[in-house]
Amino acid sequence: MTGELPPIYGTHRLVPQRGFAELQVGERFPLPSRTLGDGNFAAFQAVSLDNHPIHYDAEYCRSLGHPGPLAHGLQVLCFTAAGAGTFPHLVGEALIGMIEVSAKILKHAYPGDTLYPCLEITELTPQRTTGVVKMRATVENQHGERVLDGEHSYLLKL
Predict the structure, then answer these.
(1) pLDDT (tens digit, 9 = 90+) per residue, 115-134?
(2) Are the C-beta atoms of residues 135 and 121 closer than 8 Å to each other?
(3) Cys bridge to 148: 35, 102, 139, 155, which one at CB 3.0-4.6 A?
(4) pTM
């Protein structure tokens, strides 16, 4: 049974599966919103080992004119992980993996901000046995301001 999914898996899919050819440019995949709190900052500090006071020392940040610690740019980018939404469930076992990511941090995010990430298919490039799905990754805050703009690329089996 190596390499096979258990039979029960097929009855517990979150969304019906579609192949590469059924995907469309312009399809959007909103991801769960998140309100940044101390737990987010502490967890990211533990994972990244980034100990710069701009991310964790409120008094230091206020002395620089910020209302509080700044969320790390990579922390904000992490909120665009496709696995937090339905896209990887939609493509199922055709997903080979992420092959590229880029991002521009456009605004600061602070504790108490609510972030709204979304992925949108911008390009579908079929190859011989695989296809590349390019997605725009965006994050907006509770004021509708764009905090992050980026791109993900995923490799799928055809």
Answers:
(1) 999 999 999 999 999 999 99
(2) yes
(3) 139
(4) 0.90
